[in-house]
Write a structure and sequence with these properties.
The protein is α+β, with helices and mostly antiparallel strands and 277 residues long. The chain folds into two domains: 129 residues, Diaminopimelate Epimerase, Chain A, domain 1; 103 residues, Diaminopimelate Epimerase, Chain A, domain 1 (Roll). Helices cover 18% and strands 39% of the residues. The chain contains five helices and 17 strands. It is globular, with a radius of gyration of 18 Å.
Length: 277
């Protein structure tokens, strides 16, 4: 009989539109995540690889509490696609059509949207400079940055540029520079979006602490909010990302995001890997 290693830590690999995650379930057994562990796991050559890491723990007010880490080991208060992936996992686990996810910012409601789609309410967008946050008082609709981007808070900060052709943007260099712009004391996620049709946007993403990603749920919500504030789209918009298509609906109770999810595989972090950290 194969001997079970009590130090081994199981994990799940999931993605939403190619925005990929390692998920650790700490509800049954305590799992401690350090910045060093997050960075080692994020390494796509020597670890598992992810855009964000999610830790599940018990909650008194929701089905589960979620803590998110970026690939650079920093904390993130919001991760929309990971929330949808975990909501789908919990709905499959419990048989419930709706679950509640507690984050450091708020409790999110997630629902089965049918046809393999999962919806999550990411809450209302924050548009006051203090809530995003920005370094000083200013109009968040058009920031004093070349290109006049819009700043939005979704539990994490976002900076959205509306451009003629999102495909033509040098995403790696532009994104890296804006992430660390002095107007954003906590750094920022960066989006470049183009209007490609009625209530349709093409968007590319640079994520704070992760770099270029194929998709980002909170970025999609922030961009939809910014586009609606600027009169470019209505309250419902379809966003075409590098990893696929997501639907955003700005409603009275918050911003609903709907799209597909994938639970790719399960694995185990070995004693040797953990002891080498």
């Amino acid at each position: 009989m194969e001997q079970v290693d009590d130090m081994a830590v199981p994990f799940m690999k999931m993605h939403g539109l190619g925005n990929d995650f390692v998920v650790l379930d700490g509800r049954a057994r305590g799992v401690e995540v350090t910045p060093g562990l997050a960075i080692a796991l994020a390494d796509r050559h020597r670890g598992v690889g992810f855009d964000q890491l999610a830790l599940l723990s018990a909650s008194d007010t929701a089905d589960v509490h979620l803590t998110f880490y970026n690939a650079d080991g920093s904390l993130s208060a919001a991760c929309g696609n990971a929330s949808r992936c975990i909501a789908r996992y919990l709905m499959d686990e419990t048989g419930k059509p709706e679950v509640k996810l507690e984050t450091s910012e708020r409790v999110l409601i997630a629902r089965d949207a049918g046809n393999g789609q999962t919806s999550v309410n990411m809450g209302h967008a924050k548009t006051d400079w203090r809530d995003i946050p920005l370094a000083r008082a200013m109009d968040t609709l058009e920031l004093p940055i070349d290109g006049a981007p819009t700043a939005t808070g979704m539990g994490n900060p976002h900076c959205t540029f509306f451009v003629e052709d999102a495909e033509a943007v040098a995403l790696e260099s532009r994104g890296a520079g804006i992430e660390h712009h002095p107007l954003f004391p906590e750094r920022t996620n960066v989006q470049f979006a183009s209007v490609i049709g009625q209530d349709r946007l093409r968007m590319r993403v640079w994520e704070r602490g992760a770099g270029v990603t194929l998709a980002s749920g909170s970025s999609s919500c922030a961009t939809a909010s910014a586009a609606h504030r600027r009169g470019l789209t209505g309250p419902e918009v379809t966003i075409h990302l590098d990893g696929g298509v997501i639907h955003i609906r700005i409603a009275e109770d918050g911003i609903w995001m709907t799209g597909p999810t994938a639970h790719v595989f399960d694995g185990v972090l070995t004693r040797a890997f953990l002891e080498a950290l």
